[in-house]
Amino acid sequence: MGYNTKEEILLNSSKTSLEESLGKCGGILLTTTNATPGKFIAVTAIAEATLITAGTLALPSGTPVTIPAGITVYGRFTSLTAGTANAFIAYYEC
Q1: Who has the most CB within 10 Å: 6, 45, 51, 62?
Q2: Contact 66, 46 (CB under 8 A)
Q3: Mind listing the pLDDT tens digit for each residue in 40-91?
């Protein structure tokens, strides 16, 4: 089914982004401090933890960022590196 208006296109895009950020396409538990490549849409800290790199996140590569427990950071990430093992759930982009 095609979309007829810009509003329909925008609503569909928003719906898709919301579904992806809520884990529609699954996720993984980061259990290593090595770089984990992939296409991710969001990352959630299980306990307060340090995220060292996050691919396309607007940070200088290698700059650690502490994320409080339960906080989700949204964006399009191509690689994640945790400073603490078992610290994050990374959600796949569809």
Answers
A1: 51
A2: no
A3: 888 898 888 887 766 655 555 556 778 888 998 888 888 888 877 778 888 8
